[in-house]
């Protein structure tokens, strides 16, 4: 994904990293460590690999379930046909019966369209986002992401995140209605910015229906204060780090 061409506003500098670009205020209100680019590269690679393995496992289970259902349907159809043959008698079942002239034409049997596996689209929560660069890179570079929750307690950081999310065209956006429709379409945000305490946010996602699939902590210091909340808000089989 290429970032759009634009004029950098006065008082800001443009920082580009792989597929993404962010605006950094000269006042340095939002923290960014350029040395951590390699760490962000590794995080992207790890989540991509986890996502691929997770969907491979889900597809394997989906195929097993589909095969069982197909076998069950075949057995049921065979039993029904056998029962009908025994009821009518072998001779009558094999006799050719001509339908009346005014009888409706026979309808073709329902054709079952083969179903396709749909990869699971997962949700990532970045608890301590600062500029939002990591969340933006996740949204741009990792397939099958539904959306990323980018959180920070600092109002200045949240302001920077909102600006950078829009810069990368990952914000909620109205789109032109489809042909023949007057209804406006709203494209959901791929990165959803939240201002609040990291632990409070994660505990708010601890119920089963609200859990996320991946939690990214990356704290400036020890992760100990955040571990319990991160474990409680991640789905079974999810990823936290």
From TrEMBL:
Q: How would you classify this enzyme at the top EC level?
A: transferase
Q: Which family does it belong to?
A: Belongs to the class I-like SAM-binding methyltransferase superfamily. Trm1 family.
Biased composition, class Basic and acidic residues, residue ranges: 57-87
Disordered: where is this region? 57-109
Q: What is this protein's record name?
A: tRNA (guanine(26)-N(2))-dimethyltransferase
Q: Which InterPro entries match?
A: SAM-dependent_MTases_sf, Trm1
Q: What SUPFAM superfamilies does its record include? A: S-adenosyl-L-methionine-dependent methyltransferases (SSF53335)
Identify one Gene Ontology CC term for this UniProt entry: nucleus
Specify the species.
Ganoderma sinense ZZ0214-1
Any one Gene Ontology molecular-function term assigned to this protein's record: tRNA (guanine(26)-N2)-dimethyltransferase activity
Q: What are the UniProt keywords, alphabetically? A: Methyltransferase, RNA-binding, S-adenosyl-L-methionine, Transferase, tRNA processing, tRNA-binding
Query: What is the catalytic activity of this protein?
Result: guanosine(26) in tRNA + 2 S-adenosyl-L-methionine = N(2)-dimethylguanosine(26) in tRNA + 2 S-adenosyl-L-homocysteine + 2 H(+)
> Could you tell me the EC number(s) of this protein?
2.1.1.216
Q: What is one Gene Ontology biological process annotated in the Swiss-Prot or TrEMBL record? A: tRNA N2-guanine methylation
